[in-house]
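Hi F.,

I've been meaning to write this up properly since the lab meeting, where we talked about keeping a consistent format for the predictions we share between groups. The idea is simple: the sequence comes first, exactly as it goes in, then the structure tokens exactly as they come out, then a line or two of notes. No screenshots and no reformatting. I'm using this chain as the first example so we have something concrete to point to.
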Amino acid sequence: LDIASDGCDSIYVSIDLDVVDGGYVSASADTRFDGLTNVELLNAIDMLRRSKVGAVDLVGMNPTINMASATGQRFGAWLIIRFLAGGQLAKF
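Output, unedited:
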């Protein structure tokens, strides 16, 4: 993050849900194993939130196609909410 944000006002981050191990988030566009755990990606979101990230997008989940499980849809929504709300989540 230090290198990516050096000399700029903010950085843009694109998160592909395919990076998460299929055992933790099912029904992503291209399920993989030996990926990140859901907790590892949540920790990464926390680090991004505290850095100079100006925009985040989320790819790898199409809720109109991937209807086999709502796990990926919920997790994707949670990632964005966690990034936007940050430490305020405890107050909800």
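Notes:
Residues 71-85 form the longest helix (15 residues).
The two ends are 29 Å apart (CA to CA).

If this format works for you, I'll send the rest the same way.

G.
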